[in-house]
Amino acid sequence: MPIDPGLAIGAELGDVTFTWSASDVLLYHLALGAGARPTDERELRYTYERDLRVLPTFATVASKLHLVDPPAVSYPGIEIDLAQVVHGTQAITTHRPIPVEGKAAGRTKVVDVQDKGKAAVIITETEVTGADGSPLWTERSSIFARGEGGFGGERGSSDKVELPDREPDEVIETPTLPQQALLYRLCGDRNPLHADPEFARAAGFDVPILHGLCTYGVVAKAVTDALLDADVTQVESFSARFAGIVLPGETLRTAVWRDGKRLLVSTSSIDRNAPVLSDAVLVSK
User: Fold this and answer.
1) Residue 124: which residues within 8 A CB-CB, separation 6 or more?
2) Is there a smaller number of Cβ atoms within 10 Å at the N or the C end of the chain?
3) pLDDT attached to residue 71
4) Mind telling me the catalytic residues?
5) 26-44 exposure pattern, b = at least 16 Cβ within 10 A, e = fewer
6) First-to-last CA distance in the chain?
């Protein structure tokens, strides 16, 4: 069915109340590859409840942790085949440190639908508040739906981040695990694109690919560890554009440039010499 931007833009997608525990946080961190150095005190902040801290990108899975069905793209004015969808952008802004366990409420709405010609971009925003009603985080994301453009909507603007014309201040190499997609799907994203070889081939990929949000979390952790001494409480926000896929088992190369409180980030796959994340910015407090 063609996208109807008049129905879609501004549509409320419902409220959701959810809870999480320390075990959920530990699973998420382990699914990102945390704990590869199991006696390192900084790694234990992610993997041991004694001094557990929550990486802000946990916000991307907190409300979905206990889902077992594949996600659906079915909104007012929008019905899209999941096989045609890839993640476009993701941004998280924390309003205070995410607690190790808690209860929260989220309200999501469609804020824009962009017509890119051969594809459509659907942008949603979620405001999350804690049990006491105070803001916890704001999540903004977009999906890129192939073959769904041409409905007569606005094309939208570009949010390109210009990188400095100099060598990066830090270069980080991060291996991913061959089974990482199978681990990460336990955090609530059961899209068969990340597990089922037949489904992946139907979607145009040779093999199942890593979740974009897993890559997003892996890079956020790598930058936090390398430039913020693994202090997750210093992360105010992290935004990125998904520029390409990651195949589980590849090694990521992340270049970082300091720009005041902003850390400008670009990530590529070493194995394929291919971009992975672009226009990425981590803002520290």
Assistant:
1) 13, 108, 109, 110, 111, 140, 141, 142
2) N
3) 66
4) 189, 194
5) bbbbbbbbbbeeeeeeebb
6) 44
What is the pLDDT at residue 253?
98
Q: Which of 137, 127, 138, 121 is nearest to 87 (CA)?
A: 121
Among candidates 88, 15, 274, 68, which has minimal Cα distance to 189? 68
* 215, two tokens: 């890559």
Structure tokens at 273: 């010499």
Measuring CA to CA, how many Å separate 34 from each of 79, 91, 165, 180? Answer: 36, 21, 32, 11
DSSP 21: -
Count of domains forming the chain: 1
- What is the b/e burial string over 160-172, where b = at least 16 CB atoms within 10 angstroms of the residue's CB? ebeeeeeebeeeb
Distances (CA, A) of 78 to 2, 10, 65, 106, 198: 7, 12, 25, 21, 26
Residues β-bridged to residue 142 = 89, 123
d(CA 48, CA 142): 33
Q: In the chain, which ranges are E strands?
A: 12-20, 73-75, 78-80, 85-94, 102-115, 119-130, 135-146, 170-175, 235-242, 251-259, 262-269, 274-284
- For 70, the domain range is 5-284
CATH code: domain of residue 105: 3.10.129.10
Kindly report the number of other CB atoms within 10 A of residue 273's CB atom.
8
Q: Please list the rounded mean pLDDT of every run of 10 residues in the chain (285 residues).
A: 81 92 98 96 96 97 83 80 80 97 96 87 95 96 85 79 96 98 94 93 93 97 97 98 97 98 98 98 97
- pTM for the structure as a whole: 0.92
Helices (H), the chain: 5-8, 22-31, 41-47, 180-184, 197-202, 212-227
Sign of CA dihedral 141, 156, 11, 192: negative
Using an 8 Å Cβ cutoff, are 177 and 183 in contact?
yes
